[in-house]
């Protein structure tokens, strides 16, 4: 294998052309066919001239053309023996490989010798030349097959930990009415933590390092014999197939622009998530390793290494770019916001890697393609964020939300906002030049986090302000004043809990929290006043016995009305519901107990419909969203 490595011009190494000429001169001098005195004199002078280059060992006896023929026959025999042999030369051992390359060297030397001397030769020399030409073609075909076999059999992939692409079972769902986005769905849908930066990665060996010397020997031989183009075509073909196979392993299909534009959201969502992960693996791991492989094998052949790398990678790169550009053409639906954020963040993250992969003019179309895509994704992400806010503002209802519970819009918005703090830096860069009204005046001080008044924080608080305005409009749809307060209490409490229990708290700040806690607590007070003030007024002292009995009866009827309606109302948060039960019980039960304690004897037991324990137990049924409160009340009394 070392023979052909010496054919590449390197300072201090003999030029093989001179040696080839020397062999041919010796062969011609040894022959007496058609050589006149002048030609013999010319060959003698040429041999002396060649010896001045230190190539010819004048001590070696001129053995003549017969010895050249014998060596050529042996070389030809060795090359032809591999024409039908399907096994790899590599597997035959180092000695056999060296003998094959030495035989190829002998044949190539003869051919180079003939080509360097433009003289008419005899039929015998022509036969040798023709045989050498055929043998060289056979050897090159055999080496091309050897190259492909070795690349196929000894290929390797990137490390397994780089292959995992998250495919969650649930994803964010959106329609014009903002379908509920529950907590467990948000946990499963958030893939940003799964798309962490590929930190500290190293280039992978895509081909077993032990066979690289053999592949490089094949490259040296084929380039020296002017078959470099055939080598590159075979190398590109095999390595391109390996990249396609790797993409298949990553489950990243190739989609046309039309396919992407027609995709249903659930399919597109998964594809966008995969793209974000795959584009990092391909650029930061696989292509960096592929470029290294090309340099290891073809680094001695000027620009051939980079040209092969471009051809291997461009189809895959263009397919990834095409997908990203097609996604950027879709309408800015709110459910796409996090996906756009992930794709933009991923594309921005790899720009430096792409610049390093394709630094020259030859790869500028790929390099510029990524830079242009990143700009498009930035614009689309910003537009989607702003449209998300507009969609919240325009989400109207014609009927009140059943039971006064937590509206789908509130769940959707707050759970979606919980996904965004992980993209704070990205959003800050995208939103820094877009002004927005903020419900919290900006402050400074040691206890104020800088993040509280970042562009992202201001925009998220603005989104929640739009949500609050929408909820206030929805509250006006309730005919029952008390239910309006329950609805607002539920939704404001939910917002506070979502901020308090997530990274949103660092963006919304303490003042926002205090303001909104006070807001839902005020709703509790308003509810109690609007529900119980008139009912408890019936329990005030009066000296008339008939009035006491009537007031006791009217209280029980009023309580029944509250029970019948408010057991169907909903307070989903158990802690908030317990607080309401306790607060209501303190006011109602204590007032009723005091009324009976003062007046039970004058009212008469038969006129007292409910005991204090009955009232206390029935109050526990409120806000449970029960289907048949009457039967439940009866069961409690038993």
UniProtKB/TrEMBL annotation:
Q: Where in the numbering of this chain does the Exocyst complex subunit Exo70 C-terminal domain appear? A: 274-621
Hey, what's the signal peptide range on this chain? none
Query: Which GO biological process categories is it annotated with?
Result: exocytosis; protein transport
Taxonomic superkingdom: Eukaryota
Q: Which UniProt keywords apply?
A: Exocytosis, Protein transport, Transport
Q: Which family does it belong to?
A: Belongs to the EXO70 family.
User: What does this protein's UniProt record list under function?
Assistant: Component of the exocyst complex.
Protein name as annotated: Exocyst subunit Exo70 family protein
Which species does this protein come from? Answer: Cardamine amara subsp. amara
